[in-house]
Amino acid sequence: MEVLEAYASPDCLHGSETVQLGRLLKLTDAESLNEVALARRVAAGLPTSCVSALYELLGPSRVIGTVVSEATLRRRRKSRKPLSRRHSERIYELGRVLHALGRALHGDKRRMDAFLHRPHLLLDGATPYEMAVSCSAGADVVLNLVRRAEAGVAV
After folding, report:
1. More confident position, 1 or 29
2. DSSP notation for 74-139
3. To the nearest 5 percent, what fractions of the chain are helix, strand and coil?
């Protein structure tokens, strides 16, 4: 089952938020993750497969070069080493945004893409995607925007 299909119905989203995020990032141990375990995984470096999980959702051009460089990804894959803490944190933050957006828009990829890549007035004209990948505070701004939309506040 494609990852976004699980968001189509709230009944399909089993497990904690952490487990759901682990599934979105295609972590092999997603089902056994808790917040502490995920924090430790991010700090130690996420596997390069998380990059692949993101570009399956967003397209390679939205991840390679923006979240992690192609050379870094190639080097890490070749050496079979996890990503750096910095890259792992960027993937984690983007994953959090995609998870919240998937939940809010019931996994509708077309609507998710439209939201992520359209300039937004509340973001001073930046796209939610640009804001989310800029830094953790930017991801928080986008998460708050998604939460406001879920609560029925006009965004």
Report:
1. 29
2. HHHHHHT-PPPHHHHHHHHHHHHHHHHHHHHTTT-HHHHHHHHHS--GGGTT--HHHHHHH-HHHH
3. 70, 0, 30
6, 108 contact by CB (below 8 A): no
Q: pTM for the full model?
A: 0.91
Looking at residue 82, its amino acid is P
Integer Cα distance of 103 and 68 in angstroms: 25
Interval 87-142: pLDDT, tens: 999 999 999 999 999 999 999 999 999 999 999 999 999 999 999 999 999 999 99
Pairwise CA distance, residues 100 & 75, whole Å: 31
Rounded Cα–Cα distance for residues 133 and 155 (Å): 20
Q: Are 72 and 87 in contact (CB under 8 A)?
A: yes
Rounded Cα distance between 146 and 144, Å, is: 5
Q: What are the backbone angles phi and psi of residue 29, rounded to the nearest 5°?
A: -105, 25
Q: How far apart are CA 121 and CA 128, in angstroms?
A: 10
Distances (CA, A) of 54 to 47, 57, 120: 12, 5, 22
| 3 state SS of 68 | strand
